[in-house]
């Protein structure tokens, strides 16, 4: 008797869900497992936060613009999809920090602000002499906590380097990655490499000199081309994934409204009045959307109150003749003691010159962070006026943009607070006890960078295939 075709549902058509659906389809064929895969997406398009706009010859990312090349999951996915030859690397350049309304170059030899070469740091204008002396305390301070004990990232950094160094240099760099409050974010869930380095070497400065693994986070002035994208933008990956899902049933504009247990299967009730009965399910949607579905079962309570920050990206295109040269500057981040509204600015025309028309310039700025999220709700006109004022203050930009693209991402950046890893482990354990056929994956759980989401999609597919 032929084995019964097992039905798998993937809820969420972002990069995590797409990856899971793709590898379920691909590996089931390779392993001779009969699967029927259904992908359910609540919006009209696939890709989630990956959204590429092509306008007047510009390739503009409304969401993330790249991924870290050190993490190889996307490279593997691109290779499997046959688009690895379309990968491109960023052009190198300098990073600055806006402190009290002046741009200060990040000293050469810095890794996430940690000085591993002292002469450039000593001549830097980012810190006073007393602040620089306090940084040297890192050489003599003992480890802060036991290896398995979590703590706020900000407390960890302040203890090692002092308040001035953290506020002027490290906080804007770290917050640029997570758009969060470093005094609440979990060290273990955001930058575990720093804690590991302290445990092994005691001194972070000494440890990073020996082990440069933290380069993966970027902002390393010595590194070459840390980031990658595709020659047509990140949506190249989304289009390739969608094209390969020919054997999957893809439902767009369809939302899961309720979850029921039906013996060893799961019944997903949809907003169009229909339902999907599945043997295995991957929930690859944000925790704030998944938690209400499982509330009747007392599940996902550990993530119910996990906050998410709202941000917006503002891309402004200019004629190159109207904007003065920014030398080798690729971008800058903004310290909280500055009166700039923007939190960061990337010179996309320098970072990705092949994605900008010749003779044009593209500035990609960000607004919104913990404590300053209402700004995201302002009108496009108000946001454009504030961003232009900041570009004038920081870079001397006087020109009027040829066009502006404002992209709002409401509650898009999950905040991994202290104890996040333990809460997620407990959440997944409880889910397996009630719904062993359900996998949780995506940015709310084990990393929201694109490679992390791809890895989670791959892992979810592998776990399901191991059960078949």
TrEMBL record:
The cofactor named in the record is: FAD
UniProt keyword list: Cytoplasm, FAD, Flavoprotein, Heme biosynthesis, Oxidoreductase
The catalytic activity, as recorded, is:
coproporphyrinogen III + 3 O2 = coproporphyrin III + 3 H2O2
Span of domain Amine oxidase: 15-465
Q: Which GO terms describe its cellular component?
A: cytoplasm
Q: Which GO terms describe its biological process?
A: heme biosynthetic process
Output the InterPro entries linked to this UniProt entry.
Amino_oxidase, FAD/NAD-bd_sf, Protoporphyrinogen_oxidase, Zeta_carotene_desat/Oxidored
Question: What GO molecular function annotation could you give as one example from this UniProt entry?
Answer: oxygen-dependent protoporphyrinogen oxidase activity
EC number(s)?
A: 1.3.3.15
Query: Where's it found, cell-wise?
Result: Cytoplasm
**KW Cytoplasm (keyword) present:** yes
Which Pfam family would be a valid example here? Amino_oxidase
Residues crossing the lipid bilayer are none
The cross-references to PANTHER family, in alphabetical order and at most eight, read: PROTOPORPHYRINOGEN OXIDASE
Q: Of which family is this protein a member? A: Belongs to the protoporphyrinogen/coproporphyrinogen oxidase family. Coproporphyrinogen III oxidase subfamily.
Q: What does this protein do?
A: Involved in coproporphyrin-dependent heme b biosynthesis. Catalyzes the oxidation of coproporphyrinogen III to coproporphyrin III.
- Name of this chain's protein: Coproporphyrinogen III oxidase
Q: Provide the species name.
A: Planococcus salinus
Task: Please state the gene responsible for encoding this protein.
Answer: hemY
């Amino acid at each position: 008797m032929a084995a019964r075709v097992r039905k798998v549902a993937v809820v969420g058509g972002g990069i995590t869900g797409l990856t899971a659906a793709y590898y379920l389809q691909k590996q089931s064929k390779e392993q001779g497992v009969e699967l029927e895969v259904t992908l359910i997406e609540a919006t009209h398009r696939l890709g989630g936060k990956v959204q590429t706009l092509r306008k007047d010859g510009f390739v503009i990312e409304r969401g993330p613009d790249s991924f870290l090349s050190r993490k190889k999951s996307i490279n593997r996915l691109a290779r499997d999809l046959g688009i690895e030859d379309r990968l491109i690397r960023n052009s190198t350049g300098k990073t600055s920090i806006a402190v009290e309304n002046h741009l200060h170059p990040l000293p050469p030899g810095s890794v996430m602000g940690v000085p591993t070469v002292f002469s450039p740091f000593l001549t830097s204008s980012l810190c006073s002499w007393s602040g620089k002396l306090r940084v040297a305390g890192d050489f003599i301070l003992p480890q802060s906590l036991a290896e398995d004990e979590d703590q706020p990232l900000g407390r960890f950094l302040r203890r090692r380097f002092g308040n001035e160094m953290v506020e002027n240099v490290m906080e804007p760099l770290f917050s640029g990655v997570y758009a969060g409050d470093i005094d609440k974010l979990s060290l273990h869930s955001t930058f575990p490499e720093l804690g590991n380095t302290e445990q092994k070497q005691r001194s972070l400065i000494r440890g990073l000199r020996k082990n440069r693994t933290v380069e993966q986070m970027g902002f390393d002035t010595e590194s070459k081309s840390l980031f990658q994208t595709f020659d047509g933008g990140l949506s190249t990956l989304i289009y390739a994934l969608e094209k390969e899902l020919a054997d999957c049933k893809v439902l767009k504009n369809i939302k899961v409204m309720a979850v029921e247990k039906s013996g060893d299967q799961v019944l997903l009730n949809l907003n169009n009045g229909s339902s999907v009965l599945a043997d295995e399910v991957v929930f690859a949607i944000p925790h704030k959307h998944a938690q209400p579905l499982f509330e009747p079962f007392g599940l996902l309570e550990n993530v119910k109150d996990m906050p998410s920050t709202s941000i917006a990206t503002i891309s402004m295109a200019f004629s190159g003749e109207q904007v003065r040269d920014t030398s080798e500057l690729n971008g800058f981040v903004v310290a909280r003691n500055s009166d700039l509204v923007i939190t960061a600015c990337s010179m996309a025309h320098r970072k990705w010159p092949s994605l900008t028309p010749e003779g044009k310039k593209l500035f990609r700025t960000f607004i919104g962070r913990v404590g300053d999220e209402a700004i995201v709700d302002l009108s496009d006109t108000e946001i454009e006026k504030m961003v232009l004022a900041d570009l004038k203050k920081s870079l001397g930009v006087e020109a009027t943009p040829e066009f502006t693209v404002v992209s709002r991402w409401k509650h898009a950046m999950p905040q991994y607070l202290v104890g996040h890893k333990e809460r997620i482990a407990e959440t997944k354990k409880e889910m397996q006890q009630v719904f062993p056929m359900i996998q949780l994956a995506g940015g709310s759980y084990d990393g929201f960078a694109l490679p992390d989401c791809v890895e989670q999609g791959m892992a979810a597919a592998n776990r399901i295939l191991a059960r078949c």
